[in-house]
Amino acid sequence: MTDQSARAEDEAAPPPAAAAPDPAPSTALEREHADMKDRLLRTLAEMENLRKRTEREVSDARLYGVASFGRDVLGVADNMRRALEAVAPELRASAEAGIKALIDGVELTERELLKALEKNGVRQFTPQGEKFDPNLHQAMFEVPDASVPAGSVVQVVQPGYMIGERVLRPALVGVSKGGPKPAPPSATNDNAKAAAKNS
């Protein structure tokens, strides 16, 4: 056999088994690809959650950052209200011009203070006539009054303040005692209404 014929036979022979694709490496590559894709998706989800949490924290910091300052200023607002309530209406009517101007100035200052608090998210609430809510009100005393339902706020000793949806300071209230029981909330049952219509 000559060298040329040996070369021709080698070229015509099928490729060795090593040239055939091995299934094991491609499966390993697919697993690595799936693992990398899973890691990427998890990282993207974590980054999105971090972004949302950061936005919420920044928003809360803007809204509730003045809570400590607002709580301190409420004492000033209370004292201004007490000063105005200390002047009897008869005394106010008969007071001379200088005293009336002073009272008007204190009222104006109180309004400006409440407006500044409201501008910064702190709002006043007076729950007169509402049902007592321990999350918003602090009961100071009970008032026996049969004309209003038991558990109603009949007197507000000190108004409450909210900042956003949180209570900055609960309202100090007097609660009725011994009146008629408040009506329970009516449960609406669609099946009962349908049955009543059909009959």
Brief synopsis:
By secondary structure, the chain is an alpha+beta fold.
Radius of gyration: 39 Å
How big a fraction of the residues is strand?
15-25%
Poorly predicted ranges: 194-199
Strand order of the largest sheet: 1-4-5
Q: Which structural class do you get from the secondary structure elements? A: alpha+beta
Could you tell me the mean pLDDT? 81
Description:
The chain has about 200 residues and is of the alpha+beta class. It contains six helices and six strands, in the order αααααββββββα. The chain has helices at about 5-10, 25-65, 65-85, 90-95, 95-120, 190-199; strands spanning about 120-125, 135-145, 155-160, 160-165, 165-170, 170-175. The strands form two sheets. A three-stranded antiparallel sheet has the order 1-4-5. Helix 3 (about 65-85) runs antiparallel to helix 5 (about 95-120). The N and C termini lie far apart (about 110 Å). Mean pLDDT is about 80; it is low at about 195-199.
SSE layout and pairing:
Elements (H helix, E strand, L loop, with lengths): L2 H10 L10 H42 L2 H20 L2 H6 L2 H23 L2 E4 L11 E8 L8 E6 L1 E4 L2 E4 L1 E7 L12 H9 L1
Parallel strand pairs: 2-6
Antiparallel strand pairs: 1-4, 3-6, 4-5
Name the features.
199 residues, 6 strands, elongated, alpha+beta, 6 helices, disordered C terminus, 17% strand, 3-stranded antiparallel sheet
